[in-house]
User: What shape does this take?
Amino acid sequence: MSTPNIKVAASVLAARFDKLGEEVRAVDKAGADHIHLDVMDGHFVPNISFGASVIKSLRSCSDKIFDVHLMIAPVDPFIEAFAAAGADIITAHVEAGPHTHRTIQAIKHAGCKAGLALNPGTPVEAVEPLMDDLDLVLVMTVNPGFGGQSFIESTLRKVAKVREMIDRSGREIDLEVDGGINPSTAARCVAAGANVLVAGTAIFGGGPQRYAAEIAAIRG
Ligand code: DX5
Ligand code: ZN
Assistant: This one.
């Protein structure tokens, strides 16, 4: 197994929404590699968060990678708007529709890197035929929709399987994990092959004075 550099993605879903710009600047300064932006539509997942206009207004707050996680269905009609808002990576869920290959093409056509996410109940084989086209695979380690949930242990086996698939592909594909990530679960995900660690509560929960320490602890 060859695991590249570990990156920490700060999920602003757990930030103070009355100070979103300030929060993004703070986690940027505290060492986050990605700003992870969770878009929820109240249909694909049972919660609503924010959309492209909020992301666009945050773009001036950080030059870090904007890692946009779309928990929406349908996906394709909104890709251009998220690309125009400043997304660097757009990740869609394989469960969001039948035409995931077309979605990846549309994301790339919009000038972004393309990711696919797998819910805890979805087998890793769902992304295997698409490995030649993907830049990122996101293994959800909780059911999507909410921050602050407990890490689901069985997802570690999926992380290891996706790492094998990536290594077999010979391509540089990020393996991201999202949900219930803290220093302890992060270390186990990295041991299983993950290299991008999304964390919301574990970073933002302790307040701005702790952001740098929490990010460093998650990085390991
Ligand atoms: C959940 C989101 C996550 C969420 C993670 O659907 O995709 O990015 O913010 O939150 P924590 O780190 O609190 O589990
Ligand atoms: Zn997310």
